[in-house]
Amino acid sequence: MQSVLAQTPIGRTAPAWRRGGKASGIAIPPASRRLSTVANFSPGGKVQHTWSIERETQHTYVDPAKWIDEAAIFRALEVTKEWAKDPPRVREILEKAKEKAFVTEHDPVNVGSKSEFVQGLSLEECATLLNVDENNVQLMNDIFDTALAIKNRIYGNRVVLFAPLYIANHCMNTCTYCAFRAGNTGMERSVLTDDDLREEVAALQRQGHRRILALTGESPKYSFENFLHAVDVIGSVHTEPFGSIRRINVEIPPLSVSDMRRLKETDKVGTFVLFQETYHRDTFKKMHPGGPKSDFDYRVLTQDRAMRAGLDDVGIGALFGLFDYRYEVCAMLMHSEHLERHYNAGPHTISVPRMRPADGSELSISPPYPVDDAAFKKLVAVIRIAVSGTGLVRGNVCLSVRLFVCLSFCLTRGLPACLPACLPAWLGDLSVCWFVGVHSYPARVLRGSTSRWYQASENVASSYNCYRCI
Ligand code: SF4
Q1: Pick from 74, 359, 369, 442: most CB atoms within 10 A?
Q2: Domains in the chain, start-ordered, CATH in brackets?
């Protein structure tokens, strides 16, 4: 029987982001890499997914256990421990990574034209870099230099900022690390009205934002229909002389293929972002004991469903702190390869949220696998090297980036426009980045203390985002 995947139209051009940046013309993988596995898996048998009903029941998928190969990841991490202590071997991988990121080939059909291929690392190469000791200053500097060279070559000095906009904090899930989880009775729940939304979006526009990330929890109290309406409202806000929101990225519960199509039809949505949180099944089960999110396979196939619906601009991510960061990075590499192989387009972005304390969550205060700054910097650099054509999303950006943003705001909009936005943050106890980010915390949902909301939101997304920067 022919698989559904085989019936899916392929050979689409890579999305704009894959062709963008300094390396225009980034090519898609050859056809021989696609459709290599039989698609006969249907997720979601035991768990009810009522937030978004599937009307296209014909879809089957490649079993995620086949492409998130846990045993292969553990094996790679084990065998490369010794390799990571061998500087020539590590440098060889870094040299190869630079070459692979900058491959330029002449097009055999259009003689004279060139394509630039962005290729990443193999699982073993990635695992070797992740196993490098963070105290080995020389090797770490080599890793950072390589990441920086690749980033400069592909993206230049481009930093893109977007502001999260939380629309509702009702949630029926039980994620142990999140303040919004159903069992946290201490959290006040609320939904932004249309007027609230307009007010928030206008405030963000006045601060110079053109891109937002719209978020909501999973609950019948705030349905997908409500969310579609919110997208319309956000898109309709226009503030003189600042203009409209150019790009609405979304981070909402997993959607069915049919609802992905409806989201795409709004023609207002940029990236569909969904974090797997952890790609380690046993840990996933422990961290998500109930609710629709407890269905690992349904969640990890969300980007597949988006691709089937033609929504080929997707983001993936893991919440660092839940499991071994080295495992999560390798798994994200596998996820990225799976999407490239089957849909000609890998993820637009990879997010790297790190667990922060959240109200009412003991686990978030002492994460099972804390990631210190040195390891965090390394993992970000390794992702940049391993998946070089994909944007990186970081929350809670470093002070230098915040200062850079403040400065650019002053330079582009002028001091008079900058002052009202910047001053409260400079004068108060808020960090510099809040001069742009604070309005992304809806005042009407907020009600409690700013810092409590801030801490909660760090776990589900981030307080403030920039991407394509390390
Ligand atoms: S992480 Fe998301 S799904 Fe889980 S409880 Fe928080 S808002 Fe709900």
Answers
A1: 442
A2: 1-397+433-470 (3.20.20.70)
| Average pLDDT value over all residues in the chain | 79
Q: Per-residue pLDDT tens for 388-437?
A: 888 888 765 444 444 555 555 555 555 555 555 545 444 433 332 322 22
Burial 207-243 (b: 16+ CB within 10 A, else e): bbbbbbbbbbbbbeebebeebbebbebbbebeeeebe
**pLDDT band, residue 277 (cuts 50/70/90):** very high
| Per-residue pLDDT at 453 exceeds 80 | no
For ligand 1, whether the C-beta of 460 sits within 6 Å is yes
Q: Which atom of ligand 1 is nearest to the CA of 174?
A: 5
DSSP state of 370: -
* 8 Å CB contact between 77 and 130: yes
Per the CB < 8 A criterion, the answer to whether 77 and 330 are in contact is yes
CB 224 within 8 A of CB 250: no
Q: What is the pLDDT of residue 269?
A: 96
Q: Taking the model in full, what pTM does it have?
A: 0.81
Name 429's Cβ contacts closer than 8 Å, sequence gap at least 6.
none
Token pair 């983001």: residue: 315
The answer to whether residues 296 and 290 touch, using CB atoms and an 8 Å cutoff, is no
How far apart are the C-alpha atoms of 97 and 388, rounded to whole Å? 9
Q: How many CB atoms lie within 10 A of CB 144?
A: 17
Which of 180, 273, 294 should be mutated for ligand 1, with most atoms under 8 A from CB?
Answer: 180
